[in-house]
Automatic annotation (TrEMBL):
Family: Belongs to the L2HGDH family.
Organism: Roseiterribacter gracilis
A GO molecular function held by the record: (S)-2-hydroxyglutarate dehydrogenase activity
Positions of the FAD dependent oxidoreductase domain: 5-354
Flavoprotein as UniProt keyword: yes
InterPro entries: FAD-dep_OxRdtase (IPR006076), FAD/NAD-bd_sf (IPR036188)
Name of this chain's protein: FAD dependent oxidoreductase domain-containing protein
Keywords: FAD, Flavoprotein, Oxidoreductase
Required co-factors: FAD
One Pfam family hit: DAO
Domain of life where this protein originates: Bacteria
């Protein structure tokens, strides 16, 4: 059995951020990833939006880590040359009935200490002439980031600090002892490891890994988010455009990637298993929902694109759950339900996890 100081399980954006933070704090870090490349699951299947921190329950981990993570992320991107743009975001009320929802968002944003500018219909039209709204909010702190370049920069930092990433190295079992955690690793180079500390950041696989090493994880649910790309139409927006949030997600919004490509989504589809195919017949709902705030969307302009899977900790219809970052054993930190805004929060999650490993 080999002995290692600190193992992080899962090389998505969160595992990479935790691993680099631990390595920078002087730990010897081994990052284990089941797939043949890092960042191929949820971290490659999201909106790539840097969230300002508008929506999350005040005092929650989501609110705190998003606000802190957003600032760290902008600084990191500037310092490390990771492509990003602080393009801003317009949230729109398409009907009079939705004005109350805008007021709720303002209230939460204030409690979270996030700047948000109420704007009237004329200002919405000035900012985004194609968008129809009765009123809106403007968030100057929202932006977009190249998530793959970001993960590559975390990996580079991990390796500069002496850490190692092992690919095709799935954790398949283990045992918890007072003085060490043992892990069984399958894949190309099967091995058994005795670790001082373990961070479980396996995303959609977190509950499975937790049970395999003898933990009792919280129950999880899967909520798919489908995207449709805008094709054959000149990009109509300069900024991110979001409707009022819906249960389970932030509403079928328009995002622009760094190449200028516009896509819509993610919608909310509760599922029993992971299947990333996008059913093209969902386009009818997309047309209807987008046309409530962009009436000029032409027929035939939407093409089924990709999907991501939200690792939920509350079922359909229940109030949204917070991130779960637990310390079930002095040598283990376990992360569950790291859905949005996990990408934005990644550096702050890394700080939070590193601090927990010292307690
Ligand atoms: C549709 C959608 C849109 C989103 N949009 C945004 C957004 O715009 N902004 C934002 O801030 N956040 C967004 N998010 C959230 C964000 O994408 C996630 O919070 C983040 O990517 C989670 O990263 P992770 O590292 O926890 O998980 P993952 O990226 O899933 O990584 C987990 C890794 O663990 C590995 N693994 C699993 N089991 C094992 C095992 N047994 N052994 C070893 N490795 C294992 C997996 O292969 C995977 O690589 C979105 C999420 C979704 C689903």
């Amino acid at each position: 059995m080999e002995h290692v100081d600190c193992v992080v399980i899962g090389a998505g954006v969160v595992g990479l951020a935790c691993a680099r933070t631990l390595a920078r704090a002087g730990r010897d870090v081994l990052l284990l990833e089941a797939a043949e490349a890092f960042g191929t699951e949820t971290s490659a299947r999201n909106s790539e939006v840097i969230h300002a921190g508008l929506y999350y329950a005040p005092g929650s981990l989501k609110a705190q880590l998003c606000v802190r993570g957003r600032d760290l992320l902008y600084d990191w991107c500037r310092a490390r040359g990771v492509p990003y743009k602080q393009i801003g975001k317009v949230i729109v009320a398409a009907t009079e009935a939705q004005r109350g929802d805008l007021a709720n968002i303002i209230d939460i944003a204030r409690k979270n200490g996030v700047e948000l500018e109420p704007i009237d219909a004329a200002r919405v039209a000035e900012l985004e002439p194609e968008v129809r709204a009765v009123a809106g909010l403007y968030s100057a702190l929202s932006g977009i980031v190249d998530s793959h370049a970001l993960m590559l920069s975390y990996l580079g930092d991990l390796e500069d600090a002496g850490g190692v990433l092992a690919l095709r190295a799935p954790v398949t079992g283990g045992a918890i002892h007072d003085d060490r955690i043992e892990l069984v690793v399958g894949g190309d180079t099967p091995m058994q490891l005795a670790c001082n500390d373990v961070v479980l950041a396996a995303g959609l696989g977190a509950q499975t890994v937790a049970r395999a090493i003898g933990l009792t994880p919280p129950q999880g649910w899967l909520c798919k988010g489908n995207y449709f790309a805008l094709s054959g139409v000149k990009p109509p927006f300069q900024r991110l455009v979001y409707p009022i949030p819906e249960p389970g997600g932030l509403g079928t919004h328009a995002t622009i990637d760094l190449a200028g490509r516009v896509k819509f989504g993610p919608d909310v589809e509760w599922v029993d298993q992971i299947d990333y195919r996008v059913d093209p017949s969902r386009d009818a709902r997309f047309y209807a929902s987008i046309r409530t705030w962009w009436p000029g969307l032409p027929d035939g302009a939407l093409a089924a694109d990709y999907a991501g899977m939200r690792p939920k900790l509350a079922p359909a219809g229940a109030p949204p759950a917070d991130f779960s970052i637990t310390h079930p054993h002095p040598r283990i930190v376990a992360l569950y339900g790291i859905e949005s805004p996990g990408l934005t929060s990644s550096l702050a999650i890394g700080e939070h996890v590193e601090a927990l490993t010292r307690t």
